[in-house]
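Researcher: Good morning. I'm working through a list of sequences from a screen, and I'd like to move beyond sequence-only analysis. For each chain I'm collecting a predicted structure so we can compare shapes side by side. This is the next one on the list. No need for commentary yet; just the structure.
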Amino acid sequence: MAKIDAFFKLMNEQGASDLHLVAGQAPVLRIRGEMERVKYKTLDNDELKAMLFEIAPEHKVKEFEETGDIDFGYDILGIARYRSNFFMQKYGVAAVFRQIPEQIMTAKQLGLPAVLSKLASLPRGLVLVTGPTGSGKSTTLASIIDVANRTRKDHIITIEDPVEFVHQSKSCIVNHREVGLHTKSFSAALRGALREDPDIILVGEMRDLETISLAIEAASTGHLVFSTLHTSSAAKTVDRIIEVFPADQQNQIRSTLSDGLRAIIAQVLFKRVDKKGRSPALEILIATPAVRNLVREGKTHQIASMIQTGRKYGMQLLDDAIMDMLNKGWISADDAYAKSNDKGKFRPFLKNPPTDFTEA
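Model: Good morning. Structure tokens for this chain:
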């Protein structure tokens, strides 16, 4: 047992999502979204480095010493898997660990709308889960992939940096590929995947033009592709994808994207005030023919209106989902205001409405 495993055991006992270890400071846990310092001695740089290097693969230690930054996955059997990041900072080494549960939760357990599970049965197309870091995108995608793994008879390839949720092959064959370990890059793995007879491809993150282009191409050529972006709404997701491309290619990519797009889920996590835990609020866009036509014609400003009229397809605006949670007494008004897109809707619920400089 590695020395650092004691912190992971504490993390599990406290229900923490993240562990922060920083040279010159005591350990910190993120519990239900808030940082809480552990009653432990200040970590010395050399002691912390030895602790971290004990669990890092040899090639990752070498990479860290060369670059000052690495990512990898670390498993503790029977407890959890951890997405690990080491980095150098002013006072020495530091590390952040995100807990990834061994047990993949269902959409119902996560409090997700039933329409998300239906996305697992799509024959082809592009499905995007978006939101800020730490909003539960990977957890949502894992629940959808698990449905496909249990109900389809297909080949699933995941491409991640690092591998997060590990899916055991059930009715499907599942192959996990880690960037830097099993493949050079997301784009290289995507190019290879098209020759590996996949039915479903999970791309951990669409980081650059080449990866985005290949993902859209794969979705348009008969594959079901899932991926993530750091955007706050369905309309902004479409705009972000289009803007990545040079101006002379944008009309063409609008057409290709409109043909391949199937759904966009924009997600935000909220701390519950009625009980322990956190719950997601989601914006859901289902790419009906009318929605795809808006994408093709560059009328993304009309997507919000299309979502409002598409409730029978399971569509909903993020702010409507937040308002519903607020009315149920699940979340605080301050949190709702802070994470909403249209803050004006939530100002009447605040006891002391702030002067928001972002609205100036």
